[in-house]
Amino acid sequence: MDLDVAQARAFVRTAEELHFGRAAASLGISQQALSKRVARLEALLGTALLHRDGHGVRLTEAGRRFLAPARQAVAAADTAVAAVLGPQRPLRVDVWGHLYAPMRTLARVAGRAGELTSGHGRDLPSVTTALLNGDIDAALGRVHPPLPAGLTHRLVRLEPVDAVLGADHPLAAEPALRPDQLGDSVLWAPGALDRLDFLHRFADRFGIRDTATSVNLGLAHFLAEVVAGPRRFSLVPADVPLPEVPGLRSVPLVDPTPLYAWSLLWRSGHGHPGLNGLAAACAEEAGCSRWLEYDPTRDWLPEPPTSGPRPGPGPLPTGPRER
Prior knowledge:
Blueprint: H1 5-17, H2 20-27, H3 31-45, E1 50-53, E2 56-59, H4 61-85, E3 91-95, H5 103-110, E4 116-118, H6 124-132, E5 138-141, E6 151-166, E7 186-189, H7 197-205, E8 210-213, H8 219-228, E9 232-237, E10 248-252, E11 257-267, H9 273-289, E12 299-300
Parallel strand pairs: 3-4, 3-5, 7-8, 7-9, 11-12
Antiparallel strand pairs: 1-2, 5-11, 6-9, 6-10, 6-11
C-alpha cells in the first residue's frame, strides 16, 4: 500500500494535539477535511487509530504503534521537499532560557551555518511544541527530561556559572565561593522554581533552603532585585555580559563549578539543508573554544532523572577549561 503523506500528517498532528479543532487550525484546513483524511487513513489501514468521544481524542493501541513511524514518514517527505526548496528558505532557529542570553552562543556560530532566522520561544515546552508542529527547524537552550517523542538533541556547550549578589551580601567580598557556602542565602529565581530546572536542581544539590521567585522582566531588572536583598543571590553563566547595576557583584563558584548545558534540539528525521551546517558549526566552535570540557572532580552537572534521557550525546571529554 502507498501511504498518503497528507493523511499521515493529519493523523500525526491530531495525535499531538488530541483535539481535531486545534489540529485542523495548525494545518490550515477545516476540521471536516482533517476528519476525512484521518478516516481515509484508518480505512486504508483497516483499523482505528483514534478513539473519539465527547471528551476529546485518544490514541488506540494501533494508533500508538503507528505514531512514531508516521512521524518519520512525514519527516522524510519534508526532507525530500527541503532538498529541492530548502535553500530558498532560511533555517528557522528558536531559543529559550532568555535570561541567560542564548543568542550569545548562536551568534558565535551563525556566520558559518548559512542563513538563519530566529524566533521568540518562551520556554522548553513551547519550543518543543513549535518543533513538532514544524513551525521551526531547530532550537537552542537547556534540555531536560521528559522530552516528547520525535525530538533529537545534542549537547553543544557547557558554561561555568557564577553567583551574582549585592555588595551588602555577607559573602560579596569573597574571591570565589563554594556552592554550599550559599546555604543560608536566598536563591532569587526569575519565575516558579519548578519551571526552572537548573536552579531547582542546584538548590536541591547544595542545600539552599530559602528560595523566592520574581517575574522575568529582563536581566537588568532581575539583577536589581537581587541587589536589593542583602541575602539574595542567583546564578548567571560567567560569560553573560552584565548590565550596569549599582552594587552588583559576580563571584566565581568553585569546588565544584556548576555548568549550564546548552543543547541543539530538532525534530527527528527533519532534513532542512541548514541543520547539518548549524550542527557542524557548533561542533567546530566547541573544539576551538573548549565548550565541552568537563571534569567530574571539579565540575557539577545536574543529574537527569533515571527514567529520562541524558542531557548530552554521551561521555564528555575532560581537561582544563578556560572561563
